[in-house]
Design a protein that fits this description.
Blueprint: E1 7-10, E2 13-15, E3 19-22, E4 25-28, E5 32-40, H1 45-60, H2 62-78, E6 82-89, E7 94-100, H3 103-126
Antiparallel strand pairs: 1-2, 2-3, 3-4, 5-6, 6-7
Length: 127
């Protein structure tokens, strides 16, 4: 059995030989049944309400109204999707292990964790 060095993805996110560490949470690889990356939509209520306030303010003081409308448009366009790495365990529980804006980063963590899980399972079958 060869000892692999831990893979450090980011500060606090580490894949060791037998567990995935996400900040202060540890997930033993032999307890994980599946992993998935889920996209969460951000809410557009805030920018919408700010835009409506801008329209109302436009009738009272047009400059303040334009500022509110411009800020709401900027907020709307800069609103990004947030992604979650979800861990399913043998006892049926689901954990949101990581929340990140970079989907590619979470997919890299998912892929390397699945590869390490296969190695751990093969080693367990040999014993």
């Amino acid at each position: 059995m060869k000892s692999n060095p831990p893979i450090v993805f980011d500060n606090g996110i580490e894949l060791q030989r037998d567990k995935l560490i996400c900040f202060h949470s540890e997930f033993p690889l032999n307890e994980i049944t599946s992993l998935q990356v889920i996209g969460n939509k951000s809410s557009y209520r805030g920018p919408l309400l700010m835009g409506l306030m801008g329209v109302l303010f436009f009738w009272v003081e047009w400059l303040i109204g334009l500022v509110f409308i411009a800020l709401s448009l900027f907020w709307w366009w800069s609103n990004k999707k947030i992604y979650t790495l979800r861990v399913h365990t043998r006892d049926g529980r689901k954990f949101n292990a990581l929340i990140h804006r970079d989907k590619a980063f979470l997919q890299e963590v998912l892929l390397k964790t699945k590869n390490q899980m296969e190695v751990v399972n093969k080693d367990a079958d040999r014993d």
